[in-house]
Each structure stands twice: as C-alpha cells, then as structure tokens.
C-alpha cells in the first residue's frame, strides 16, 4: 500500500480486542531483566571467539609516520595486529552523496591519513579481551601532525551552504523577511548556542562477526540493518547478499547507531583473516570519538511583531559543523518552518568543515536544539510584549503550514497548551520575573511548545500462521529499546484475534523482509503498518479458505466466525501453514499535508540566589501524536525525551580541547547527564488523536517529540524565577551567578 489517500475506517479503529492503546508490559521485558536477551556482544552462536580491541589515533589531523607493533604482536595470546600496513584493501569512503548515507563505504586502516581524534589506527585481536586490551597498549604509533580547526564559533566566516547531509532544502524564504523585520514595531534579535551532545546509548557499539563460506554474519548494535548490510558490502566490496546483519536486541540508539563503525568492519575483516569469530565492543570512552555526536550550534533568531504580538517576520539561521570529509549538518531551523504563522519568513543553515569526529543525527536531529533557540526567543518576545507566552503562541497559530502552504494533517498545539496550563497551574505564574521567593530560592514557571516532523518509510512484513495456531512475523526492523516487539505484537494480536502469547515477533535480521529500521521516530509507523497490512492479507486468505465473506468475518479467540460458520485459525492453517505479506510505502499524503507531532512542556524550577544552582521541581509534557499504540511505552518514550531536555538545559556539554581536537570529558563521569536526583515529578500525557493522513495505523512518531522543545521550558522557567536569560546552553551555575550579579 502506498500512502496516497487518507486511511479509511479499519480494524485498528474498531479495536475489538482492546489491544491497541493497551499499556501492555514489554513482551521482551522478562528476557531483558533476567539477562536472557542476548545483545550483540553476548550472542552464543559464535564458537571460540577471538577478541578485538581498537587503538585510537591520539592526534586529530595528520599522518601516521610509523607504527611499531612488534611488542603487541609478541604479547601473550595475540593473534593479529591489523594496521594500515596489513589491513585488506577496502573501498574508498563514500560516495559522499549516496542517498542512504549510512550505506556508504567506511574503510578502516586503509591509509596513513588521520582525519579526527580517536580514529582507529590499529586493531589488536587476541584470545581474550584482557590480552587484546593489554597488547593494544603496546602498539606505538608516531604521527606527523597537521594543524587542525576545531571550533565552530571561531570559524563561522568559513561557513558554507551545506550540500546533502540528510536535511531538506537548507535555505527557505517566504515574502520579504528583511524588509518586514526592519519595519516591525517590536523586534527580537538574539543569538543562542548549544554545545556538543553525545548520544551515549547504554549498550556500547559492539559486533561479533564470523564467515560462513563467503558470507559474513555480523551481530552488531544497529538501528538500520539494511544500511549496515550495504555499508559492510560496499566497504568490503562484496555483494550485499553476502552480508547478514543481526541485531535482535539493541540497548539504545538515539541516532548514534544509524551508522556502523570500526568494531563492525574490523571484526568482519579480522574474522576472515583468522578464520574464526571475532568480537569487539567499544569502550565508553572510545564511543565519544569513534562514533557520531551532535554538533554544537550557533543560532540567530529574529522575530518581528506588531505590538499586539502578531508575528510579521520570523528568521532562523543556524550554524553547525561537519567532519571535514563528510557533509552532515544539524537541521536546527527546520522547526521554524512549520510552527508559527508570519507572512515573511526565512530559514538558513550553514555548515563549517572542522577536523572533529563525525557529527550526525542525535535524537531529534534539528528540533532538539533548534527548539531551544526558537522557544527561548518566543519567551523573550512574550516578555518584551508583556503578553502571556501561551497567548503569544495562540495569537500566531497558523491555519496552513506557513511555508509549505498545505493543511496540517492534525495540529493540536493549542489543545496541548491549554490542557497543560490547566493541569500544571499556569495561572499561578507571575508574569514579572523574580517575584516568588522561598528563603534563598527563587521559584519560576516556564513553558515551551514542541514540534517534531512525522515520517513514514518503506517496510515489509511476512507472516506465517502455523498449524499450532502460532502466528510468526518476520521483519528486519529493530527494537532499540523503544518497544517495537511489544507494539507489533499488539497490532497482530488485535488484527487476528489471538492472545499475545500466540504471536511470535522475529525482528533484527537482514535475512527477514526489508524495513527502514529504527530512526527519525518512523519505526512504529512504518514497520507497524507493514504488520497491519500483512494481517489484512492473512485475514482475507483465511476468510476465503473458511468460505466466509471477508466483510462479515470476525476474528476472535483464535477463530474466524461469520455467516453462521466458524473455524479455528490453527485448523485453517493446517500442517502446511498459511503465509501473508504486507508492504507500506510513503505516498502523496506527506506532500499534501504537513505532518508533525505537537506538544507543550511546562517546568517549575528553583534557583539558588547564592550558588546559582537550578533545581527542576516539576515537569509536564502534554502531547498529541496521533493514535497511541501502547499508553505505557509512549509515556516512557516521552518522558525519556523530556529528560534529554533536562540534560540539554542543565547538564550536557562535551568540551573540545581547542589544541588537540578531542572531547576532554569523554566519559559519563565528566559528561554530565541528568540522574535521578535531577529528575523530580515528571509526567507526560497524550491527548486523544487519530491521524488518518499518516499511515493506516493513524499514528505518529513519539520518540523524538519529547525532547523537541523540552529544555526551553526549563530555561524559560529559570528566567521567570530570577530574571536571568541564558542563551548559551547548558544553564550552568556560573552563568546564573553572572546573570544575577549583572542584575543586582
Ligand atoms: Mo534518530 S536521531 O534518527 O535515531
């Protein structure tokens, strides 16, 4: 099915068995908490694996002038030390503008060039992990280092219009922004910055590879199996069907596992050489440089408005970095294209090539940091106009998407703000900052809107109903901790009238039907629609073989009933079983309608006037994101995103050493993320919504909506508490104190 028309009424709407929306526990929860869900590094299929350990470059730009690997080679248990001198020849990086950038060839150890700090320069394989790690410490690498450039802010003059990189058109313009801004009676012109963000999924990147004849089998931590498969094939210059990628369980992705890395490529190469399985896991510290991060950004927001708060001009410019050899850019300004009305508009992205590790998608690429700027600016404008921040947003509610000039599929921003305001007690907020004091603490309330584009990608599913009445579904789709196994089980159980324990969901194998995996919050919608469509086909087949009019067939309790007839699904399947397939493709609906999830975040903070410490006290997100498949999982996703928002407002910041081009705080002791004590009463609510323009399930992505704007609610609450406006994230104590001092 191609999504060219709104989805008509269907069995998911009917929800006869109540499976859709049910806050079902994760079907894989028990396996996970008992340690029986094998993650890539733990799979038992690999007999007698050897262990690989990466040696990373200690310069950011230059060449390897010499490598002495003798001591490592002689170390106990060492089987292989792979460097550029003996690594198998691989394809060159790229091509850079390949449509699926995660499928590009990624050669390792193929030349002496060093393009970023931490780039792998050797791969040591030994009988045990400890032996490999010890020997890795004996590899001596000498470098001829070149001077590199590592700082976005110092190099803005070198910024260029990005080419490719996964975004839409980098620049857009509607009307005459400059003219309208110049003429506006009220103007805001503010520059915001956000630092480097590290995704740091709990499960490190890991691979175990072995060869079955001329075909390599790789269990690895990947969000996108087809991309990983093509990447390995392109790099090793073998056909994709000679690569099988398996990722049954993935411990978090956040975009950081969209690509694969040296652990995968080098395990595959070393395994071929040694003729035995090779496994490799990155250390937490290695992940900071070997894998992708979110670029820091500089953003300029200009908003012009009438004195009544009607926006007449809105402009969002954003700068980010790309690794010099790559072309990714952070699409920070894209959110401004669809959120508020305004006749004259401009967005612009610029990218600066730097000698840093590779920047790429990190949870809600674009919105996550773009909304920190846009929603801060809206709060500043509201303050300037002396209009309530919610009222300002309502005054600029567009009828059509103001850039695409098409209707929204659904848009409940106003309802989210109203509902959240009521639940949170927004009416208790004092408009003038610094009014609520509790001893040395100043208390404030802030809000921000949330928007995140909704996506649908191609996906296929194959079902097999067995004579035992068990329905098995196969897809290459991954579950990166989001709950894919569970929501697809709910869809199939609902459609077929089977108890969930009669549904077997097999995911995470590139031998299974092709999907677009997990990314961009499109996973549930895309692969879930494929499950739904396959079930429709299976229902038709079963109805036909039972001699029942499909329009009258009812599927319940493992049986099909209709027209006075009844048959068990197990009986109809018989010994041979019945198979069915479903396929979803995006179509016209995402061009005819602007599709986004919306929400509103509310935060209450206390600011210590003596130390500058900020304590988040309460937080609430109210979202509207289409139909909700599983109330508990959706809430968990939203809360997870909001906690990222807490991190981006208050904690997270990777710091580059401008002399050497590395992240100084490259572990979770020094790269701060919110801990339990930083996350007090927090809740997320989804308003009822059904979006028939998105996909047959009428759902939207929920994963990334939670982070898109959440941090700005906290920054706005800090301003409301103490009158200090911090435009450089994160809001650390030093910045609060400086602000308080300059106010005094
Ligand atoms: Mo997402 S940052 O596209 O996994």
Describe the structure.
The strands form seven sheets. The chain has a seven-stranded mixed sheet with strand order 4-6-2-13-10-11-12. It has a five-stranded mixed sheet with strand order 1-25-19-20-21. The radius of gyration is 27 Å and the shape is globular. A hairpin with a 5-residue loop joins strand 19 and strand 20 (471-474). 25% of the residues lie in helices and 25% in strands. It has 744 residues and is α+β, with helices and mostly antiparallel strands. The N and C termini lie far apart (64 Å). The mean pLDDT is 97. Helix 12 packs parallel to helix 13 (523-546). It has three domains: 2-37 and 457-586, Aldehyde Oxidoreductase, domain 4 (2-Layer Sandwich); 40-147 and 199-290, Aldehyde oxidase/xanthine dehydrogenase, molybdopterin binding domain (Aldehyde Oxidoreductase, domain 4, 2-Layer Sandwich); 366-455 and 592-743, Aldehyde oxidase/xanthine dehydrogenase, molybdopterin binding domain (Aldehyde Oxidoreductase, domain 4), CATH 3.30.365.10. The structure holds dioxothiomolybdenum(VI) ion. The site of dioxothiomolybdenum(VI) ion (MOS) has 11 residues, from loops.
Can you give the helix content as a percent range?
A: 25-40%
- The CATH architecture category of the largest domain equals 2-Layer Sandwich
Query: How would you classify the helix and strand content by structural class?
Result: alpha+beta
Question: What percent of residues are in strands?
Answer: 25-35%
The first-to-last residue Cα distance is 64 Å
Tell me the CATH topology of the largest domain. Aldehyde Oxidoreductase, domain 4
Q: Main β-sheet: number of strands, strand sense, barrel status?
A: 7 strands, mixed
Ligand list: dioxothiomolybdenum(VI) ion
| pLDDT averaged residue by residue | 97
Low-confidence stretches at least 5 residues in length (pLDDT < 50)?
A: none
Shape: globular
Strand order of the largest sheet: 4-6-2-13-10-11-12
């Amino acid at each position: 099915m191609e999504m060219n028309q709104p989805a008509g009424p269907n069995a998911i709407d009917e929800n006869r068995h109540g499976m859709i929306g049910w806050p079902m526990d994760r079907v894989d929860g028990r396996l996970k908490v008992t340690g029986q869900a094998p993650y890539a590094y733990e799979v038992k299929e690999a007999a007698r694996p050897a262990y690989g350990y990466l040696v990373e470059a200690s310069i950011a730009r230059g060449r390897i002038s010499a490598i002495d690997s003798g001591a490592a080679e002689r170390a106990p248990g060492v089987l292989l030390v792979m460097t550029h001198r003996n690594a198998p020849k691989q394809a060159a990086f790229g091509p850079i503008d390949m449509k699926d950038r995660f499928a590009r060839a990624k050669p390792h150890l193929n030349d002496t060039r060093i393009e970023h700090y931490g780039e792998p320069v050797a791969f040591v394989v030994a009988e045990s992990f400890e032996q490999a790690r010890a020997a890795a410490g004996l590899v001596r690498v000498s470098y001829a280092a070149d001077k590199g450039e590592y700082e976005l802010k110092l190099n803005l003059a070198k910024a260029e219009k990005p080419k490719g990189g996964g975004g839409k058109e980098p620049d857009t313009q509607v009307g005459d922004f400059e003219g309208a801004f110049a003429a506006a009676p009220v103007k805001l012109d503010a520059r915001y910055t956000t630092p480097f963000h590290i995704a740091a999924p709990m499960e490190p990147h890991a691979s175990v590879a072995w060869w079955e004849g001329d075909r390599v089998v790789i269990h690895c931590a990947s969000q996108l199996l087809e991309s990983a498969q093509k990447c390995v094939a392109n790099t090793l210059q073998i056909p994709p069907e000679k690569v099988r990628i398996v990722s049954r369980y993935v411990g978090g992705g956040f975009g950081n596992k969209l690509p694969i890395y040296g652990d995968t490529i080098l395990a595959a190469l070393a395994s071929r050489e040694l003729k035995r399985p090779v496994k490799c896991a990155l250390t937490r510290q290695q992940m900071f440089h070997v894998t992708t991060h979110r670029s820091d950004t500089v953003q300029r927001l200009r908003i012009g408005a009438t004195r009544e708060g009607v926006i007449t001009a809105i402009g969002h410019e954003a700068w980010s970095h790309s690794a010099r050899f790559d072309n990714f850019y952070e699409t920070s300004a894209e959110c401004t294209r669809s959120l508020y009305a305004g006749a004259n508009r401009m967005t612009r992205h610029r990218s600066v090539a730097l000698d840093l590790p590779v920047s790429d998608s990190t949870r809600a690429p674009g919105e996550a940091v773009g909304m920190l700027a846009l929603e801060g600016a809206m709060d500043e404008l509201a303050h300037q106009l002396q209009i309530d921040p919610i009222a300002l947003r309502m005054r600029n509610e567009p009828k059509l998407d103001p850039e695409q000039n098409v209707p929204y599929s659904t848009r409940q921003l106003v309802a989210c703000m109203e509902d959240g305001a009521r639940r949170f007690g927004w009416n208790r907020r004092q408009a003038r900052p610094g009014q609520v004091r509790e001893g040395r603490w100043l208390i404030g309330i802030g809000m921000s809107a949330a928007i995140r584009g909704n996506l649908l990608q191609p996906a296929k599913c194959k079902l097999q109903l067995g004579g035992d009445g068990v329905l098995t579904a196969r897809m290459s789709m991954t579950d990166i901790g989001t709950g894919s196994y569970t929501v697809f089980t709910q869809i199939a159980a609902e459609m077929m009238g089977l108890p969930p324990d009669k549904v077997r969901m097999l995911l995470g194998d590139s031998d299974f039907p092709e999907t677009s995996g997990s990314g961009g919050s499109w996973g549930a919608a895309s692969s879930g629609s494929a499950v739904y469509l396959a079930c429709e086909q299976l229902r038709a087949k079963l109805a036909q073989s039972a001699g029942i009019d499909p329009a009258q067939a009812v599927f319940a309790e493992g049986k099909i009933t209709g027209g006075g007839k009844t048959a068990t699904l197990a009986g109809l399947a018989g010994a041979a079983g019945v198979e069915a397939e479903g396929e979803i493709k995006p179509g016209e609906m995402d061009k005819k309608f602007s599709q986004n999830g919306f929400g509103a975040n509310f935060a209450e903070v206390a600011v210590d006037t003596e130390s500058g410490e900020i304590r988040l006290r309460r937080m609430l997100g109210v979202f509207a994101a289409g139909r909700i498949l599983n109330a508990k999982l959706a809430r968990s996703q939203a809360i997870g995103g909001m906690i990222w928002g807490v991190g981006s407002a208050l904690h997270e910041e990777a710091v580059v050493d401008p002399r050497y081009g590395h992240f100084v705080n490259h572990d979770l002791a020094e790269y701060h993320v919110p801990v339990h004590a930083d996350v007090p009463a927090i809740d997320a609510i989804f308003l009822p919504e059904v979006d028939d323009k998105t996909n047959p399930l009428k759902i939207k992505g929920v994963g990334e909506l939670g982070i898109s704007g959440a941090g700005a609610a906290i920054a706005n609450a800090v301003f409301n508490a103490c009158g200090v406006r911090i435009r450089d994230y994160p809001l650390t104590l030093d910045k609060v104190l400086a602000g308080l001092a300059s106010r005094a």
